[in-house]
Design goal:
Order of helices and strands: HEHEHH
Number of strands: 2
Strand order of the largest sheet: 1-2
Keywords: Lipid biosynthesis, Lipid metabolism, NADP, Oxidoreductase
Family: Belongs to the fatty acyl-CoA reductase family.
Function: Catalyzes the reduction of fatty acyl-CoA to fatty alcohols.
Largest sheet: 2 strands, parallel
Structural class: mainly alpha
Oligomer: single chain
Pfam family, one: NAD_binding_4
Helix content: 40-55%
Catalytic activity: a long-chain fatty acyl-CoA + 2 NADPH + 2 H(+) = a long-chain primary fatty alcohol + 2 NADP(+) + CoA
Strand content: 5-15%
Distance between the termini: 46 Å
Length: 96
């Protein structure tokens, strides 16, 4: 029914708890957004997909322009890493 009838998707779901594990954050935020995009691509009457970011801010920039900033790492590789490593191994890469 969703694929047939939905015309607008607003995606703003995310975890903004900064004490969650890196694995949880990647799977909940990055992979879930990818999955929403995959679902939206199947929607036959979709006219808009709106993504509302909850936490992105390029803090090292003195002024923030209304533009898409390049990611610091490939999001697809991050999903692959999070899916393939156990939580303990992935936490080794978390800043202390």
């Amino acid at each position: 029914m969703l694929i047939e009838r939905v015309t607008i998707v607003v995606h703003g779901a995310a975890s903004v708890r900064f004490n969650n594990s890196l694995k949880f954050a990647i799977l909940t935020n990055t992979r879930a957004t990818r999955d929403m995009c995959i679902l939206a691509q199947k929607m036959k009457n979709l006219v808009a997909f709106v993504y509302v970011s909850t936490a992105f801010a390029p803090a090292n920039e003195p002024f923030i322009d209304e533009k898409v900033y390049p990611p610091i790492y490939d999001w697809q590789k991050m999903i692959d890493i999070a899916e393939s490593l156990d939580e303990h191994s992935l936490n080794i890469f978390t800043a202390k």
